[in-house]
Amino acid sequence: MQLCPRSRKKPAIDSPATDIRIWQTAFETSPVAQLAIDSNRCLILANAKANTLFGLTLNDLGSSLQSLQLWQLPGLCQSFEKVNRDRNPATLENVGWKTANDTTYFNISITPVFNADTQLICLTEVSPPRTNVL
Length: 134
Fold this sequence. Notes:
Strand content: 25-35%
Radius of gyration: 17 Å
Number of helices: 3
Mean pLDDT: 80
Shape: globular
């Protein structure tokens, strides 16, 4: 990615390291919970919103999704299988997640992304929840 205003002759950003920092910052500070999950269903990245929403810590990186509470979201397992099989995005709408005090609803988008070695990584976005008190 290069930011290149029309009034400048030289690119405003020309370093690959700067490009990476911009994307990392955008991922980490997004108001939408975002997670990156590898093809073995292990958590490889989570932004601040996802950490707060799902109670994730640095110790959870590398963990199997089955061992994390976010795996309890209805339909998530089947959607990951579908994305892995078809290599197409999947969307879940109005997914209800019951806690002790209320039910929280999410819209979840799972997008297949491939790294430099063409290994599948699923980027998952969870929309800001709408909470209904029981």
